[in-house]
Amino acid sequence: MKSEPVLVLGATGYVGGRLVPRLLEAGCRVRVMGRSEAKLTSRPWACRPGIEIAQGDVLDVVSLHRAVSGCRAAYYLVHAMGEGEPEPWKRNSGSD
Predict the structure, then answer these.
(1) 3-state secondary structure the chain
(2) Which residue in 8, 7, 9 sits closest to 79, CA to CA?
(3) Is the dihedral of CA 31, 55, 53, 17 positive or negative?
(4) Are 24 and 56 spatial neighbours (Cβ–Cβ below 8 Å)?
(5) How far apart are the first and last CA of the chain?
(6) What are 76's strand-pairing partners?
(7) For each of the chain's 96 residues, which pLDDT tens digit applies?
(8) Could you give the count of Cα atoms lying within 13 Å of 88 in the half-sphere of its Cβ?
(9) pTM to 2 decimals?
(10) Strands 51-55 and 30-34
């Protein structure tokens, strides 16, 4: 198993939920981060060797930094779910 993990943000979504097992099958350690630890731990791959679960929010710089620390790659598969809400990168940007 490769030593530095690959971070998957959005692992509970459609694409992320299918990417995680593929990465594990390829011999990668995988770190997943999400707001709901319960959602992450309920996934079929959650108890497989090589998985690290981190609770956090992509809008929280501290938890995002902690999740990405030591990773060799990251997949950002997060999108806004709420109707009419600005995309996360546009919030508080002063461009509204």
Answers:
(1) CCCCCEEEECCCCHHHHHHHHHHHHCCCCEEEEECCHHHHHCCCCCCCCCEEEEECCCCCHHHHHHHHCCCCEEEECCCCCCCCCCCHHHCCCCCC
(2) 9
(3) negative
(4) no
(5) 45
(6) 9
(7) 778 999 999 999 999 999 999 999 999 999 999 999 999 999 999 999 999 999 999 999 999 999 999 999 999 999 765 555 555 555 555 554
(8) 11
(9) 0.81
(10) parallel
State both tokens at 76: 């950002």
Kindly give, in sequence order, each residue whose CB lies less than 8 Å from that of residue 35, ignoring residues fewer than 6 positions away: 55, 56, 57
Q: Would you say how long the chain is, in residues?
A: 96
CA 20 to chain centre: 10
For residues 51 and 60, give the distance between their C-alpha atoms in angstroms, rounded to a whole number. 22
Q: Give phi and psi for 64, each to the nearest 5.
A: -65, -45
CA 48, CA 91: separation in Å to the nearest integer? 36
